[in-house]
Amino acid sequence: MKFLCARALCAAAFLLCVPSLIASAQSPAASQSTSPKPQNPNGNVILSRSIDENGGTTTQAGSGNTPQMAAAPIATDSEREAVTFTSFDMDVHLRPEVHQIAVRAQLRVRNDGKASLAHLPLQLSSQLNWERIRVDGRDTSFQVATLNADADHTGQLHEAAVTLAQPLAPGASAQLDVTYSGSITRSAQRLIAIGTPEDVALHSDWDAIDTDFTGLRGFGNVVWYPVSAVPVILGDGARLFDEIGEHKLRLAGARFNLHLTIEFPHGEAPTVALINGHSADLHVTDSANPGVEIPGVATAQLDQPALGFEAPSLVVAIRKACAGTNVTAWALPENEVAVKSWIAAASTVTPFLQGWLGQKPRAELTLIDLPDRRDAAFETGALLATSLHEAPQDQLENIMAHALTHAWMQSPRAWLSEGVAHFVGTLWIEKQQGRPKALSALEAGRPALALAEPESPGESAGQPLARAISPVFYRTKATYVLWMLRDVAGDPALSAALRAYDPIQDAVKGSGKDAGSGSFKTLVEQAGERRDLAWFFADWVDADKGLPDLSIESVFPTSQPAGNWLVAVNVANSGYASAEVPVTVRTDLTSVTQRVRVPARSKVAQRILIQGKPTQVQVNDGTVPETQASVHLKTLEEPASSSTQPATGASQPR
Question: The pTM is what?
Answer without folding.
Answer: 0.85
